[in-house]
Structure formats: C-alpha cells, structure tokens
Inverse folding.
C-alpha cells in the first residue's frame, strides 16, 4: 500500500460533479481518491467508478470506493472503505482476499483495535470536528481524541495507518499531523476553495513538510 498523506473524498456540489471533484484533487497532486456516493443506486456508482478508475490509473493514483465491497471486487478497484454500518471488515477480507485495500472507520481506540484484528489496512478516524458532508456523525474527537487514540495504539503495539477525517481545513493540518496520525482525508475544504486544484497543492506541500 502506498503511503497515504492525503486522501480526497468525492462530493457532489452545486459547482462540481463527483468526477470533477476527483479530477481537481488529482491535478493538485493528491494520489488517493475515494469515490463516495451516498444514497446513489449501485448501477450509478459503478458507472462513475469505472470513469474514475481510468482517471486514477492515468495519474498513478490509488482508487478506493466507499461501502460497495462487491463492486470493488467486480471492477478491481484498489480497495474499499467500510464503516460501522457496512459489511464487517473480516467478511470483506474474506471476499476480497489480501490484495485489496480495506479501510475501516473508527471513533475510539476500541474501534481501531477491532478493525486491526479483523485485518484492516488503514483507519479513517474521526470526526475531527463537525461537518455537513456526513450525516449522523460520531462524537467529535478534536486533537486530544487523536492524541489519546495514537498513544493507546502505541501501548498496545498496534501499527496501522491512521487518517484523520471530518471538517478538517488547511489551518488544522499541522496540529493534527503533530498528534501522530499518518494522514488526512478531506472533501469540503478543497471543494469550497476558490481554486480547488491550488488548494490541494497547498495542502500537499504542508503535509510534505510535516512528514520530513
Ligand atoms: C477515510 C474515511 N474515513 C471514514 C469514512 C466514513 O465511512 P463510514 O463510517 O462508512 O461513513 P460513510 O462514508 O459511508 O457515510 C470514510 N468514508 N472514509
Ligand atoms: C466521510 C466522512 N466521515 C466522517 S467525516 C466525513 C466527511 C469528511 O468530509 P469533510 O472534509 O467535507 O468534512
Ligand atoms: Mg460507509
């Protein structure tokens, strides 16, 4: 699995389609794209996924899909992201085998441990703060939440990439990275920027500094 500094999560807005949103993140240098189309029929997700998969291949980017394990297997996407209400990670691992990436959502250390034991490859950990991009948010973690989860992981000897998510903006990134997480997953802050391509570049550059 390539190191994940920034994962972009697609979002449909008044200005941009799912595809446009991913194009801009890729053009700005992001090399991890997650197709997230809540409430769309799987046939629509498949159409969009096939287009994005080609685009990600052109950019040499990792391409994962939110929720749809069978679709990931069918089209050979790079992986899937699964939350608490989705297929359990262990079941997805049985279906997909070891060559696909499986991410799991965590809000607590116990969630991290469960996904680790079930064979997840990385954790999407959040929300950092309130966001309108996702409904039914879990409790807000803030910086202290990440510090606590990272420290409990160290104590337990659990080594798994942790990607912080939820309401994160450019200004938040240095302090979030300083808690010991591996990377950041973003949607809204890139899409709300005047120039999402430039905003992605700006973010990639601070993350590089923080990862030296
Ligand atoms: C990187 C990353 N982290 C968390 C999530 C949230 O997944 P989930 O809990 O399944 O919620 P939905 O995205 O399905 O609404 C994610 N998608 N990506
Ligand atoms: C999918 C997801 N899971 C927790 S918060 C979130 C949305 C993140 O998007 P944004 O960066 O717009 O808050
Ligand atoms: Mg989900």
């Amino acid at each position: 699995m390539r190191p994940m500094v920034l994962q972009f999560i697609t979002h449909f807005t008044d200005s941009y389609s799912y595809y446009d949103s991913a194009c801009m993140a890729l053009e700005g240098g992001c090399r991890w794209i997650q197709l997230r189309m809540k409430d769309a029929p799987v046939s629509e997700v498949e159409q969009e996924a096939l287009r994005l998969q080609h685009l990600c291949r052109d950019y040499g980017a990792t391409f994962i899909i939110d929720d749809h394990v069978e679709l990931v297997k069918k089209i050979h996407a790079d992986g899937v992201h699964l939350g608490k209400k989705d297929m359990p990670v262990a079941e997805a691992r049985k279906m997909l085998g070891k060559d696909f990436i499986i991410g799991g959502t965590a809000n607590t250390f116990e969630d991290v441990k469960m996904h680790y034991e079930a064979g997840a490859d990385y954790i999407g950990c959040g929300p950092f703060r309130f966001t309108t991009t996702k409904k039914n948010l879990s409790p807000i973690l803030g910086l202290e939440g990440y510090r606590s989860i990272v420290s409990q992981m160290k104590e337990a000897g659990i080594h798994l990439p942790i990607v912080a998510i939820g309401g994160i903006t450019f200004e938040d990134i240095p302090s979030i990275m300083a808690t010991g997480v591996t990377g950041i997953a973003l949607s809204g802050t890139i899409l709300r920027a005047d120039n999402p391509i430039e905003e992605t570049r700006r973010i990639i550059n601070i993350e590089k500094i923080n990862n030296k």
Notes: The radius of gyration is 16 Å. The CA atoms of residues 19 and 52 lie 7 Å apart. The chain has one domain: 5-210. The pocket of TZP (ligand 2) is lined by residues 9, 126-127, 131, 133-134, 165-168, 186-189 (CB under 6 Å).
